[in-house]
Design a protein that fits this description.
Blueprint lengths: L8 E6 L2 H9 L8 E4 L7 E4 L1 H4 L9 H7 L4 E3 L3 H16 L5 E5 L2 E5 L10 H16 L3 E6 L2 H8 L7 E3 L5 H6 L11 H9 L5 H5 L3 H8 L3 H7 L16 E12 L2 H22 L3 E10 L4 E7 L7 H13 L8 E11 L8 H4 L4
Parallel strand pairs: 2-4, 7-8
Antiparallel strand pairs: 1-6, 1-7, 2-3, 5-6, 9-12, 10-11, 10-12
Length: 360
């Protein structure tokens, strides 16, 4: 039997979405380095303008560090109801072309336009029309990646930001991945990237040079994904996924932690990052869950449920601390801490890099 024709996948990613909305709505902020989020010592940057990024400011960065990098940084309180409304406008534009849309968050989504409503043969043409409509109807810009699968489309959308497009055809996919630093490949998080670097794997070409046995020995169940990704292969369909039941963030430490102060500090940092994901996804949960993986790889979870969804970062962080402190002193050092919220009320979904390869 003949193999089916390649899919036509578009990944649309709004440019500095929250910050761009703020600059659109407040002309006095245009051209300035701004960060959306908390500017206090415990605050976190949700996103920032391109003017701020030139100073090294990045999403999920502590507010204090962001101010040190950019003393003139202007912090703006987030307005998630506005961002959700604009996101709805953008999704309505998507619906003019296809119903096969997989939102990842308020500001990005995959679209399968292999078969599309207007009957346009060129996915590149569709992507350009979508970008033009977004600009005309919202006053914002979006970048697009166009390719034959989700992995490469997502990587491509980041190639020519802001307000750019990158097209990678099936014959170009392997070479595109080969030149890519592995830390940029979706599914390779910071911890895995460091492990790969220690093994001499810096680029997609380096990853492709390792056989399956090597990858299985070092990366276990994620080996198959890395093996195929290095060859530009990804057969995951674009689909509307079922409502997510949880949102979580976890981190693995280079050295096992056992001291209370260090554990609490790490958990507070994780809570900050989790809150950013919750707000970005609009996904509020009633149950806070703590995860601890010990040095012997044993895992325990502890949870606390509330009568209503948690809508305060302070309440989330305190619930996490209470769950952690109840386990002290630990029987042995912790190699990983995680915090999440379950029983969600929101509809959005979040893909997480380090978790991705284990949940295909």
């Amino acid at each position: 039997m003949d193999s089916p024709p390649p899919r036509k996948i578009i990944h649309i990613d709004m440019d500095a979405f929250y910050a761009s909305v703020e600059q659109r709505d407040d002309p006095s902020l245009r051209g300035l380095p701004i960060a959306v989020g908390g500017g206090g010592p415990r605050g976190v940057v949700a996103t920032c303008s391109y003017e701020a990024r030139r100073f090294g400011v990045r999403s999920a960065m502590p507010g204090g560090r962001a101010r040190r990098l950019c003393p003139n940084l202007v912090f703006v309180k987030p307005r998630f109801e506005v961002y959700r409304a604009v996101s709805g406008q953008v999704r309505e534009i998507f619906s003019r072309f296809t119903d096969i849309v997989q939102p990842l968050s308020l500001d990005e989504a995959y679209l399968d336009v292999t078969v599309n409503k207007p009957g346009i043969a060129s996915a590149t043409q569709i992507a350009e029309q979508i970008r033009a409509m977004i600009r005309a109807e919202t006053g914002l810009t979006a970048s697009a990646g166009v390719s034959y699968n989700k992995l490469i489309a997502k990587l491509a959308s980041d190639q020519n930001k802001p307000d750019g497009i990158c097209v990678v055809r099936p014959s170009e996919g392997a070479a595109f991945i080969a030149a890519m630093p592995v830390r940029r490949i979706h599914g390779v998080g910071p911890v895995t990237a460091k492990r790969m670097q220690a093994l001499g794997i810096e680029t997609g070409a380096d990853l492709r040079a390792r056989d399956m046995g090597f990858l299985q020995a070092h990366f276990g169940s994620a080996a198959d994904y890395y093996y195929r990704a290095a060859r530009g292969e990804d057969d995951r369909p674009v689909r509307e996924r079922e409502g997510r039941k949880s949102v979580s963030v976890e981190d693995t430490f280079f050295d096992d932690l056992s001291e209370e102060a260090a554990l609490v500090a790490e958990l507070d940092r994780i809570a900050d990052n989790l809150w950013g994901r919750i707000e970005k996804a609009g996904a509020w949960g009633r149950t806070v869950v703590l995860k601890i993986k010990f040095a012997d790889f044993r895992i325990i979870t502890r949870s606390r449920s509330f009568s209503a969804p948690v809508r305060s970062k302070a309440v989330l962080a305190q619930a996490g601390r209470d769950l952690l402190l109840a386990q002290l002193p630990l029987r042995m050092g912790a190699r990983l801490l995680g915090l999440g919220v379950h029983n969600l009320e929101g509809e959005e979904d979040v893909e997480q890099g380090e978790q991705f390869a284990l949940s295909l």
